[in-house]
């Protein structure tokens, strides 16, 4: 039986058990990962999984059951358990299974690399990254390098007639060299991920870049507390977009627990700033043919010319707010849908990263963030950081064990992007400069 055949059988079992409505999700996949450290193989792992989930509705009551075994002989039992659970839980007036159109063509998104790399290929990728890092002057040790491959298959069917499926592949390489000796050691890292193996960054280039940064971080200082511009390296700049999408998540808006709950249609970022969510990007890390409720997905400007244009909504949060879903439902087999972004990015600016820094008399260049000190209700922001001081428009000495703080409302309004955007992570940003933050040091 195909995945959709399994789901059709499970929905039929739900109907026999007394469900008024139901939807079913099947997720299967395989993954391989290898790791090496200091030239020696440390791990080779392969994992395979199959999971199936059923959500049933009895009136306005619902329940979810899931299983790691996709066995049609067990479907009646699963359905009976789900219906029995649904009958004893409180009603939810907002939860429902929405009508959904036929799915878009997943093949157009080119999300599945037909070539599964061999173990030797994965080991060669990891070796190239680590060997390039170890060859760099000043590198004394390594936390290791790794390479991975995965393929997953998602299928969704509902009692309202929707049925769709798509597959996705993923390749990854990472490396983390160490510079220095004893208590003065410093580490850094580099990684690359892509849907197709041909789109991975050159592992040797990655190894050298990580090694150069690790050496440059030796002997960090702790600067005095100051209020200054903070510049985020692209690998950490995307975290600000994560805080933004958390604040426009429809579930939080419906509860009134977001610092942006009253910001619809108002300026949230400076004029000229646009933030895009694009689930239809070809070979995108988070592309999808439909959302977790079978709804059509589309490219949206969440921020346009600084103005907030939409919430991230699934059908439940949309119903709570008296709106329509935006096609942002995400889910697994054991939980209900909830809103989430897909391929998220901030559009690049016009200045190079060097030009963005050039007029800063005293500032901070952040390359690593620690902790998650963000209050989603107030927007208060405080995170541990490491990086380099900026002096007279130039990257200067390394610093560590510092804290940067501000309020996200103010930070968003005083944010400037550089022109060095690259699509590498799923949530992507160019170098970002934020004015007027507080740096707490020694």
TrEMBL record:
Cellular component, GO annotation: cytosol
Domain Metalloprotease TldD/E C-terminal intervals: 226-441
InterPro entries on file: Metalloprtase-TldD/E_C (IPR045569), Metalloprtase-TldD/E_cen_dom (IPR045570), Metalloprtase-TldD/E_N (IPR002510), PmbA (IPR047657), TldD/PmbA_N (IPR035068), TldD/PmbA_sf (IPR036059)
GO molecular function terms attached to this record: metallopeptidase activity
GO process annotations (BP): proteolysis
Superkingdom of the organism of origin: Bacteria
Cross-referenced Pfam families: PmbA_TldD_1st, PmbA_TldD_2nd, PmbA_TldD_3rd
SUPFAM superfamilies given in the database record: Putative modulator of DNA gyrase, PmbA/TldD
Metalloprotease TldD/E central domain boundaries: 116-218
All copies of domain Metalloprotease TldD/E N-terminal, residue ranges: 22-86
Family membership noted in the UniProt record: Belongs to the peptidase U62 family.
Entries under PANTHER family matching the protein: METALLOPROTEASE PMBA
Protein name per UniProt: PmbA protein
Species per Swiss-Prot/TrEMBL record: Acidiphilium rubrum
Lineage: Bacteria, Pseudomonadati, Pseudomonadota, Alphaproteobacteria, Acetobacterales
């Amino acid at each position: 039986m195909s995945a959709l055949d399994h789901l059709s059988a499970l929905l039929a079992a739900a109907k026999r058990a007394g469900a008024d409505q139901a939807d079913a999700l099947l997720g299967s996949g395989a993954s391989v990962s290898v790791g090496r450290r200091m030239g020696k193989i440390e791990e080779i792992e392969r994992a395979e999984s199959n999971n199936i989930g059923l959500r049933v509705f009895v009136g306005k009551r619902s329940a979810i059951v899931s299983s790691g075994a996709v066995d049609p002989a067990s479907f009646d039992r699963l359905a009976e358990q789900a219906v029995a659970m649904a009958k004893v839980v409180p009603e939810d007036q907002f939860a429902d299974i929405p009508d959904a159109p036929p799915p878009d063509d997943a093949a157009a998104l080119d999300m599945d690399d037909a070539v599964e790399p061999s173990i030797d290929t994965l080991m060669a990728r990891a070796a190239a990254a680590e060997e390039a890092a170890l060859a760099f002057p000043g590198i004394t040790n390594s936390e290791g390098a790794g390479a991975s491959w995965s393929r997953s298959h998602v299928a969704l069917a509902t009692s309202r007639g929707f049925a769709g499926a798509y597959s996705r592949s993923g390749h990854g390489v990472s490396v983390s060299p160490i510079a220095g000796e004893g208590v003065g050691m410093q580490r850094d890292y580099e990684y690359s991920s892509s849907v197709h193996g041909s789109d991975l960054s050159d592992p040797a280039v990655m190894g050298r870049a990580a090694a150069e940064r690790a050496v440059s971080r030796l002997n960090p200082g702790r600067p005095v507390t100051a209020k200054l511009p903070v510049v985020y390296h692209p690998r950490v700049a995307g975290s600000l977009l994560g805080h933004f999408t958390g604040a426009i998540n429809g579930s939080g808006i419906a509860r009134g627990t977001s610092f942006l709950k009253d910001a619809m249609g108002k300026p949230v970022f400076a004029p000229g700033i646009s933030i895009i969510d694009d689930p239809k990007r070809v070979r995108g890390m988070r592309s999808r043919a439909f959302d977790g409720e079978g709804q059509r997905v589309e490219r949206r400007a969440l921020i346009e010319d600084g103005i907030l244009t939409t919430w991230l909504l699934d059908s439940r949060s949309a119903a709570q707010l008296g709106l329509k879903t935006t096609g942002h439902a995400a889910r697994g087999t054991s939980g209900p849908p909830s809103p989430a972004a897909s391929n998220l990015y901030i559009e690049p600016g016009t200045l190079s990263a060097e030009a963005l820094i050039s007029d800063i008399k005293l500032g901070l260049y952040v390359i690593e963030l620690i902790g998650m000190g963000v209050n989603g209700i107030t927007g208060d922001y405080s995170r541990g950081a490491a990086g380099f001081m900026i002096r007279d428009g130039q990257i200067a000495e390394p610093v560590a064990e510092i804290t940067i703080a501000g309020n996200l409302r103010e930070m968003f309004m005083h944010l400037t992007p550089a022109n060095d955007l690259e699509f590498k992570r799923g949530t992507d940003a160019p170098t970002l400069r934020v004015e007027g933050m507080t740096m707490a040091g020694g």
